[in-house]
C-alpha cells in the first residue's frame, strides 16, 4: 500500500488528504466507504480489501463473491456491518458482520432476485440502499421498473415490492425515512413506504 499526502491551505481552512493505493489486484471499482474505525474498503473484480487509515495497513484482498463487486455500503446505523452488491445471478446482496472475522468468513446474509431482463450495462450501475433493518434494490421486469425491499431479520423473502412503468430503467433506490426514492434516466419516483404508494 502506498500513501500520497496532500495539504491545501487558505486563510479560512486547511485540508490534509491521504491517498491510498490498495493491493486489490485490479483497478479499484468500489471507491470509498469509511467505517467508524477508520477503515476504507476497496474492491476490484470479486475481491475486497479493508485498509486501516490510521495504521496504513492493508491486508491482501479477499475473494468474497462469484460475481464482480459493484457497490459497497457501510450500514449507517451499525458501521460494523458491510453490504456488498454483486453481479451474482441470484444473491446480489451480501451482508458481512465484520465482528465475525471480516471477509474471510461466509456472508452473514445473502439475498437477491434473478434479474434476467436487465442488460449488463444497467445491472452494472444499479445501486441499492440500506436503512435500519431494510435493504432496497432496483430491478427491471420487462417494461416495469421494480424496487424490492428486504428485511435483514427475515431476508429469505421480499417484504415489499414497488413497481411502475418508468421511462428508463431504475438504477438507484434510496431509503430515506419513510420514503423510497428511485431514479433512472431523467425520472424520479417517490413512494411512501408506509402506504406502498
Explain what this protein looks like in three dimensions.
It comes from Daedalea quercina L-15889. This is WD40 repeat-like protein. InterPro entries: WD40/YVTN_repeat-like_dom_sf, WD40_repeat_dom_sf. The chain has two domains: 18-112; 115-197. Helix content is 3%, strand content 48%. The N and C termini lie far apart (48 Å). It has one helix and 16 strands. The strands form five sheets. Strands 6-7-8-9 form a four-stranded antiparallel sheet, with no helix packed on it. It has one helix at 120-125; strands at 2-9, 14-21, 39-44, 47-52, 62-63, 69-74, 81-86, 93-97, 109-111, 129-131, 134-141, 144-151, 158-165, 172-176, 179-184, 187-192. By secondary structure, the chain is mostly beta strands.
Tell me the distance between the termini.
48 Å
- Number of separate strands: 16
Strand content: over 45%
Query: How many H/I helices?
Result: 1
Structural class label: mainly beta
Report the helical percentage: under 10%
Main β-sheet description: 4 strands, antiparallel
Instruction: Please trace the helix and strand order, writing H or E for each element.
Output: EEEEEEEEEHEEEEEEE
Question: How many domains?
Answer: 2
Shape: globular
Unreliable stretches (pLDDT < 50, length at least 5) are: 1-18, 26-32
Mean pLDDT: 77
Task: Please give the radius of gyration in angstroms.
Answer: 18 Å
InterPro entries: WD40/YVTN_repeat-like_dom_sf, WD40_repeat_dom_sf
Organism: Daedalea quercina L-15889
Protein name: WD40 repeat-like protein
Amino acid at each position: 500500500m502506498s500513501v500520497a499526502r496532500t495539504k491545501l491551505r487558505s486563510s479560512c481552512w486547511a485540508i490534509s488528504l491521504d491517498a491510498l493505493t490498495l493491493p486489490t489486484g485490479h483497478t479499484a471499482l468500489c471507491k470509498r466507504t469509511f467505517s467508524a474505525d477508520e477503515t476504507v474498503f476497496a474492491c476490484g473484480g470479486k475481491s475486497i480489501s479493508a485498509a486501516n487509515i490510521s495504521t496504513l495497513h492493508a491486508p491482501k484482498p479477499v475473494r468474497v463473491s462469484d460475481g464482480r463487486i459493484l457497490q459497497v455500503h457501510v450500514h449507517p446505523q451499525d458501521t460494523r456491518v458491510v453490504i456488498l452488491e454483486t453481479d451474482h445471478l441470484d444473491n446480489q446482496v451480501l451482508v458481512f458482520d465484520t465482528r465475525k472475522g471480516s471477509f474471510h468468513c461466509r456472508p452473514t446474509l445473502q439475498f437477491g432476485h434473478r434479474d434476467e431482463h436487465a442488460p449488463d450495462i444497467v445491472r452494472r450501475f444499479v445501486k441499492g440502499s440500506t436503512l435500519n433493518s431494510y435493504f432496497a434494490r432496483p430491478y427491471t421486469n420487462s417494461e416495469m421498473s421494480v424496487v424490492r425491499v428486504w428485511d435483514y431479520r427475515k431476508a429469505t423473502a421480499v417484504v415489499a415490492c414497488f413497481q411502475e412503468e418508468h421511462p428508463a430503467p431504475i438504477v438507484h433506490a434510496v431509503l430515506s425515512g419513510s420514503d423510497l426514492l428511485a431514479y433512472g434516466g431523467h425520472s424520479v419516483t417517490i413512494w411512501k413506504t408506509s402506504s406502498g404508494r
